[in-house]
Amino acid sequence: MSSKRVAIADLSDAVQVEQAFRVADKQLRVNRQGGKYILLRLEDRSGVIAAMMWNADERVFDRFDRSDFVLCCGRTQIHNGALQLIVTSIERMDAAEVDLADFERFDHQKSEGHLARLREILLGLEDPALKAIGKAFLDDHVFVEAFRRAPAAISHHHAYPGGLLKHTLDLMELAALISVRYSEVNKDLLIAGAFLHDLGKISEMSDSGEATYSDRGQLVGHIVIGVQMLGQKIEEVHKHSAGLVSDETRYHLEHLIVSHHGLMEYGSPRIPVTVEALVLHHLDNLDAKLASYLNVLETDVSVGSNWTNYSPSIGRKLWRR
């Protein structure tokens, strides 16, 4: 099966496909005429492709689950500037029938490098309270393993295993750079906020291999979960160094977490009211937007043009370099 597979990243328009995929997500929907169809997100090591199966029903939908391997027959086509697969048949496969290397999206080598650099930055903080909090997280082996593998999103930016670590490290590096330019910014506080801001996503998204949100994620959300995680680590620090983390430091860290989306309508319980919170919001937005735009450039299938196809996810075409 593996030798016959064409990686998702290498698929092109109007190609007949009969090969294995892993189901990242599935939904049974009803069109305007009352007919049912299945909307799918299929994945392999190289990426994700949207797929649709028309004239389907519950019997087909129930044959397989999220995270299952499936044998799909169908044909690729371009829709709204993106490649998708129109599926004509789909059958569940046993894991023994596929080469698991074709579907492992987690890059162990990159993860080790990213984690080593993140550790270096956190343990290099000059503020003893912030350094102690960072160390408490790094000494938690269960947390570290989950952090290494977590995606930063389901379908937007850094939506792959290890994406959260990459996004977090990039923000910490950017925080260090911008702090040199603006002396008014508390460098250690900004770096700590960059580390903490999205940690709640570890619990917000399912750890079962499905590209979906957990029950806790949907009921509580990563911002509240992140504040809870911070509180737990501060309590651990206090057991060994009572009074090291002041209430003021805790409040500023909590504010960095709860305000990093920038506006209440974007999910922030509070808008940024400190210099560090303002900077963190804009750095987070920059990194997320740039990652999304670069993904459009990398995956666009148009040829013979200086422009990509229109992308609904970012609401525009992009100029190619």
Structural account:
The chain contains eleven helices and five strands, in the order βββαββαααααααααα. The protein is α+β, with helices and mostly antiparallel strands and 321 residues long. The chain has two domains: 2-102, Nucleic acid-binding proteins (OB fold (Dihydrolipoamide Acetyltransferase, E2P), Beta Barrel), CATH 2.40.50; 108-296. It has a five-stranded mixed β-barrel with strand order 1-2-3-5-4. Strand 2 and strand 3 form a beta hairpin. Helix 6 (187-196) packs across helix 10 (247-258). The longest helix is centred in the C-terminal third of the chain and has 25 residues, at 275-299. The radius of gyration is 22 Å and the shape is elongated. The two termini are 37 Å apart. 33% of the residues are buried. The model has no long low-confidence stretch (mean pLDDT 91).
- Percent helix among the residues? 40-55%
State mean pLDDT (0 to 100 scale).
Answer: 91
Order of helices and strands: EEEHEEHHHHHHHHHH
Strand content: 15-25%
Q: How would you summarize the topology of this molecule?
A:
Elements: E1 16-30, E2 36-44, E3 47-53, H1 58-61, E4 69-79, E5 82-93, H2 108-123, H3 128-138, H4 141-149, H5 163-181, H6 187-196, H7 201-204, H8 215-219, H9 222-240, H10 247-258, H11 275-299
Parallel strand pairs: 3-5
Antiparallel strand pairs: 1-2, 1-4, 2-3, 4-5
Compact overview of the structure:
By secondary structure, the chain is α+β, with helices and mostly antiparallel strands. It is 42% helix and 17% strand.
